[in-house]
């Protein structure tokens, strides 16, 4: 016979009710929090996996925010450049209008006035700020306006050549800015007479007319295949009897005589051209007019021209050239032709950047899609480990409540059993 003391009965009953009550409280906590693992002791293995999955979700959310920021920044730049293209197109239309031979001086002044307005609009667009107030085309100098007027009233670039990048996934970065120098300033310029001098610092007597690029290609690339020094400019010198001699200036500023004897490109025609005769020089057609012995003309083929400088030069020409002489008329025609080419080059520069921005947006979109899929998969696995099944939990709660109630009632009955009740 096993003897069971009253103390054992009471201890066992209380312990059993505490266990049942503990399970009941745990189930209530799961239902209230929606999680079946609320502390590591609930399920150490699942808790460790949930911790790693939480870290992965945070990582994905951080990259998703970065991708969204990059998307917004690039779309803002894309929209800004589209506005710049519209302005340049309007400037081009005005330039074509200015080239009409029927315009009066007042008409040219009216065109000049609108060009000044368009120039200001272009400057405002180039100085666009992002949501944080930084100038988007200033490189790393976000607090500095990209373009500002210098002491002479010309628009000059004020930023640096930095490019900001943002990480949108592990090892995946995307540029989120472009400096204005590469977009608006370093634009290939039209082939033009950039200066004329007779060697004494005085303007040349003659002028160049009919300047036209008849072999549109990269002149420097063509030269590099045939000459040791790639020319940047040409100097056309007028000698006795109006005979023209041509000297090429290389990238280091050193003159190199080019003729049929040592240059396969045959830059100096034979016989040598004369003043008043049309000739071709490396795919460029031109005529030197009214020049005398000692006159020199520098022909630029590798220059850069900012879009602002192109418009400013056009405005200055409309305001100052009167077309009263053949020389001024030729200068005016050359100005219009150069401006049209430079504006086309400027548009092309911006459109190329827009194309590049489109590629970045595609990369962001694909990365964002991958992050979204990864996030959903990670959260699904975490949910399986962590989230409570409410139907099961409520059923358990009802059962545990019943068990606790039964335990309490049975304990109440057992606790009244005593031999003293039989005496």
TrEMBL record:
Keywords annotated in UniProt: Bacterial flagellum, Cell projection, Cilium, Coiled coil, Flagellum, Secreted
InterPro entries membership: Flagell_FlgL, Flagellin, Flagellin_C, Flagellin_N
GO molecular function: structural molecule activity
One of the Pfam families matching this protein, by short name: Flagellin_C
GO cellular component annotations of the record: bacterial-type flagellum hook; extracellular region
Positions in coiled-coil regions: 53-80
Domain of life the protein comes from: Bacteria
Localization per Swiss-Prot or TrEMBL: Bacterial flagellum; Secreted
One annotated GO biological process: bacterial-type flagellum-dependent cell motility
Chain ranges of the Flagellin C-terminal domain: 348-417
Keyword field contains Metal-binding: no
Residue ranges occupied by any Flagellin N-terminal domain in the UniProt entry: 15-140
Homology family: Belongs to the bacterial flagellin family.
Annotated protein name in UniProt: Flagellar hook-associated protein 3
Species of origin: Marinobacter nauticus (Marinobacter hydrocarbonoclasticus)
């Amino acid at each position: 016979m096993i003897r069971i003391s009253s103390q054992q009965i009471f201890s066992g009953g209380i312990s059993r009710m505490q266990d049942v009550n503990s399970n009941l409280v745990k189930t209530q906590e799961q239902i209230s929090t929606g999680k079946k693992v609320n502390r590591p002791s609930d399920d150490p293995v699942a808790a460790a996996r949930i911790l790693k999955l939480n870290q992965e979700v945070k990582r994905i959310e951080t990259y998703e925010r970065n991708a969204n920021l990059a998307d917004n920044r690039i779309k803002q730049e894309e929209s800004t450049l589209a506005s710049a293209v519209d302005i340049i197109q309007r400037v081009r239309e005005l330039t074509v209008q200015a080239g009409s031979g029927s315009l009066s001086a007042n008409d040219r002044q009216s065109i000049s006035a609108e060009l000044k307005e368009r120039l200001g609009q272009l400057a405002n667009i180039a100085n666009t700020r992002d949501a944080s107030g930084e100038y988007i085309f200033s490189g790393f100098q976000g607090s500095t306006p990209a373009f500002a007027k210098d002491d002479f009233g010309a628009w000059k670039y004020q930023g640096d050549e930095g490019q900001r990048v943002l990480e949108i996934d592990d090892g995946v970065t995307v540029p989120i800015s472009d400096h204005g120098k590469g977009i608006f300033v370093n634009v290939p310029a039209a082939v033009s007479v950039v200066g004329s001098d007779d060697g004494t610092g005085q303007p040349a007597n003659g002028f160049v007319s009919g300047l036209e690029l008849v072999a549109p290609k990269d002149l420097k690339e063509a030269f590099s295949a045939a000459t040791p020094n790639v020319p940047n400019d040409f100097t056309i010198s007028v000698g006795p009897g109006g005979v023209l001699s041509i000297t090429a200036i290389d990238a280091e500023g050193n003159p190199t005589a080019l003729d049929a004897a040592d240059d396969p490109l045959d830059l100096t025609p034979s016989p040598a051209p004369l003043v008043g005769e049309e000739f071709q020089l490396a795919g460029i057609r031109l005529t030197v007019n009214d020049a005398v012995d000692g006159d020199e003309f520098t022909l630029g083929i590798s220059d850069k021209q900012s879009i602002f400088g192109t418009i400013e030069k056009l405005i200055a020409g409309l305001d100052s050239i009167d077309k009263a002489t053949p020389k001024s008329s030729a200068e005016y025609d050359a100005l219009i032709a150069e401006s049209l080419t430079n504006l086309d080059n400027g548009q092309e520069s911006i459109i190329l950047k827009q194309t590049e921005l489109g590629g970045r947006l595609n990369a962001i979109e694909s990365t964002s899609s991958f992050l979204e899929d990864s996030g959903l998969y990670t959260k699904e696995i975490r949910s399986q480990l962590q989230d409570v099944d409410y139907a099961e939990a409520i059923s358990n709660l009802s059962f545990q409540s019943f068990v606790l109630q039964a335990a309490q009632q049975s304990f109440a009955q057992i606790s009244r059993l005593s031999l003293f009740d039989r005496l």
